[in-house]
Amino acid sequence: MxxxxxxxRPHPWHGLGPGEDAPAEVQVYVEITPFDLxxxxxxxxxxxxxxxxxxxxxxxxxxxxxFIPQTYTASRVAALMEGASGGDLDxxxxxxxxxxxxxxxxxxxxxxxxxxxxxLDGGLxxxxxxxxxxxxPVFGHVREIEHIPEVLVERLRHYFAxxxxxxxxxxxxxxxxxxGRTHAQTVVGAALEDYRAQFPPAPEPDxxxx
Length: 210
Fold this sequence. Notes:
Largest sheet: 5 strands, mixed, barrel
Number of strands: 12
Order of helices and strands: EEEEHEEEEEEHEEH
Radius of gyration: 17 Å
Strand order of the largest sheet: 1-4-6-10-7
C-alpha cells in the first residue's frame, strides 16, 4: 500500500488547497467554533493558530468560522464591493453551517458555497462567505442562501456587526445585505486570482536537460 502524505505540517493558508471544485465547493480551515468566546486567527508566518483577542461582548459565533486556503482579499475582491478602498489582505473568510456541533478548531472540512455577507472593515472589503457542510444531514441539500433559515443569517450579520464593538471603533464596521450563490462564487474566484497574483508559484528548477 502506498500513500501520499506531508512529512511536515503544511501551512494552512499556503500548504492546503482551496478544493478541487472551487469556487463552488471549497476546503475550509476552521479557526473558531460556535463555542469560542476568544477570537482565534491563523498566524500568517508560522501557520499556527494564535489568540487574537478575548471578545468584549457575550456574542458567540453562530457558525463555524475560518478561511479558504490559497485565497487573498485584495484588489479583485475589493472591486466587487461598493465603497471598498481595497481588500483587507487576509485569506477569504467563510462561515459554515453544520447541524451537528463541531466543537474544536484547527480542523479542515469541505463546504458548498451558497452565499455571503458583504462587510467593510475600516473601508476595506472583508466578505464573509457562507457555506454548508458537505454531506450534512440537515444543511447538505442547501444550494442557495435563501434555503438557510433567515434567523441564522440574521445572527451572522449581527455577530459581524458587533464582534469588534468598542467605543472608539463603533463606526469601523459596515455589514450589508446578504448576497446569493452566484456572487459568492464570483468573490471566491476573485480571491483565488488575488492569491495567485500575490503568491505566484515558484518556477520549475532548471535541470539542464533539453
